[in-house]
User: Fold this.
Amino acid sequence: MCLAIPGKVVSSEIHNGIRVGRVQFGGITRETCLDFVPEASVGDYVIVHVGFAISLVDREEAERSYELLESMGLLNGELASDLEDS
Amino acid sequence: MPPETKLDVALNCPVPIAARESILLGHGSGGRMSGDLLRNVLLPALQNPVLERLDDQAIVDVGGSRIAFTTDSFVVKPLFFPGGDIGTLAVNGTVNDLAMGGAEPLFLSLALILEEGLPLDTLRRVMESIRVAAALAGVVVVTGDTKVVEKGSGDGLFVNTSGIGLVSSEVQLSADQARPGDRVLLSGTIGDHGITILSQREGLEFESAIASDTAALHTLVADMLRASCEIRCLRDPTRGGLSSSLNEIAARSRVGIELKEDAIPIREEVQGACEILGLDPLYVANEGKLLAIVGPTAAERILEAMHQHPLGRNARMIGTVTDSHPTMVTLRTRLGTSRIVDLLSGDQLPRIC
Amino acid sequence: MKYLDEYRDEKIARGIVAELTRRATRPWVLMEICGGQTHTLMRYGIDEMLPAGIELVHGPGCPVCVTSLEMIDKATEIASRPDVTLISYGDMLRVPGSHTDLLHVKARGGDVRVVYSPTEGLKFARANPGRKVVFFAVGFETTAPANAMAVWQAKREGLRNFSMLACHVLVPPAIRALLSSPRNRVQGFIGPGHVCTVMGYREYEDLVREFHLPIVVGGFEPLDLLEAILMLVTQLEERRAVVENQYVRSVTYEGNLPAQKVLAEVFEVCDRKWRGIGGIPESGLSLREEYAEFDADRIFGTEGVTADEPAECISAEVLQGLKKPTDCSAFGTRCTPENPLGAPMVSSEGACAAYYQYRRHAIAATGTH
Assistant:
């Protein structure tokens, strides 16, 4: 549990009183309910589960936390090559 | 594995094994259930050495010539989809089964089962597709049959095609020929056909630019055979995807196969669809791709020949044949770890979990 | 694909593992809650990468595995009726009930259909007013808001032929039940990232206070899980026990308030029976009285359906993380994905199926579990 995938909002409209949008997942697009993410705009990334966006991807948090991960990768790479060199 | 206990395990688990005395959709999936049906119900009635090879086609000796003979039925729903229709599949599918035996495809038969109420225009469209596909493939439909069933008994239209072709004497392709050290080649991107069909299916629809990859592969095969005589086996991975074909080869040749995840070409759209539906592209059907098991020194030469052909532009080396874990197919993941690519039992179902 | 591919990077994964190896000075037993997380661990062979002392046991985070036998029996009974179309997520189709499963019901002529989203179920109901459309609504808190919206829309539109067989389950009560067991070996949890995306992680603070063990809310990609494991081990090594959030790109403390709002409007908390574990109080969601006219259980009179599970079942111990699937004498022999004896072998997220599909060659090669 639970399969939810990040996608990019490419359009948004009100349909039948519900906010829906087209969200793009790596080249395919699907109609997605955006009612749970009123703050999401076109161009934003949302996490989608069974056709409903359940969160807006926090770009800054994502970037910040990923930098930490990258540094672990780099550090390990350096240590590994240090060991090889010595 | 722990030694088996004498306790009746049914007492320990909450459900009895479901008795399986009728056909389920999973029997048509190309996975383990299909294999079981074949071995337990169909083959026992038909034992003969040619059939038991279980290649995509049978190669029989007739008056000194080697004739490849195959049959395939097409039950796809919806009948029409981006990239083709049931007619295109019916021609290309059988041409490909012949081509996987190294045959020059020559003649097809065409049997139609039509549901009462099928619009004639639908039938005309399908026939036109068959005409075009046959002309492109250079085969002739020389015989056929038509039956009509009552409304409610079919999905509108079922098609069966059988085909014959000629195989030259030097060509010896079969699933039991793979040897440790051989390389696994793949002619292009996986999952295009299966995902196209899913994109049209009620309840799962999505928009994409994907089309079915249905195509006749015999001229690609001819180029490959000209480039090298070290091709052991060819397979077109249709239902059940790469996994079914490779597991079959591993089982028949009693070898292990190791794939490299990073090497397997996949279109972004197919990747996206698989991600949201929770599907593994290794199990998704293809209709215009082939797998080749080839000798290690011949691999580069054959790949070059494939790259020159329109249907082989994205050809890649995706794995090797090994003597470890015989009959099992494994995958080296993009993290450098290893996992099994098992045969699924039935159809792969979309998941939420 | 953005926010996906970069979390599958090999170099970074090895970097996290190296850091983990440096920090772990003793063995630790961790549990990931979600079936989706189990799937990633198995599919990418992450258990193979971890240092020897870190043991991962797999929790009951698969709604397929834990949906009670009764619920499956209700679903198969309703689906067998000629005027009913039962709409379900794919996961549920092969789960065995007391006598049959939905795939077999379909084979015998039942109208059972798979959808990706509950909105497809609504579409079908609108297009087919002559059919009684029943949506089989399983899932954790992640799926409940979507299912709630479907019923909410049905009520608003007066869609009389649409109803729902609701059997949602909640994660925190299940964790509490696991932790209350005297046999519990788990020392830290990877929390359910998408459940917490909806619900936030306040409830997990209560659990940490009560049981004094760390919980790190984790995502679903390899780097997410590795980072969550690193954060857990760091806490354990430092003798801390708090809730931390690894999945910061999606999870916030409060969670998704609009989703919680629609949940509260449509569903209410109820007691729920979990397959293999038993009854856990206040661990499920059922339709509120105001939505009674959409409750398939009432409409089709299946409220009285009960099923007996034998008291002891290894499925239960696997789901509680007390045993590995390979400890079961039937694993891979009498119990396989084609002939599952219990739900964990059926669901692609179930621990048994994951082990069977991805890992048994390593098991066979070493002869150990």
Q: What stands out?
A: Chain C touches chain A through 54 residues (CB under 8 Å).
